[in-house]
Design a protein that fits this description.
Length: 77
Amino acid sequence: VPIDRSLLKIEWRLNDRPINSTDNPRYHFDSIPDQNLYWMDIRHCEQEDEGVYTLSISYDHGRFEEESSAYLFVDSE
């Protein structure tokens, strides 16, 4: 069943703080909407990028919500 993409809200967070590519151009977000795939690339990853990354997806003004998180470890060497 197709969904109305205008009701879809995608938010990326680092340690529960919203992030976007405008604030930091090293973050690059992309997607394949027809396959419901979303990802983020971090270019020139640094120690400050370490932490919990969360992708939050909500639909229909929060009627449906889902999150997925992962921890990024950055080796300082």
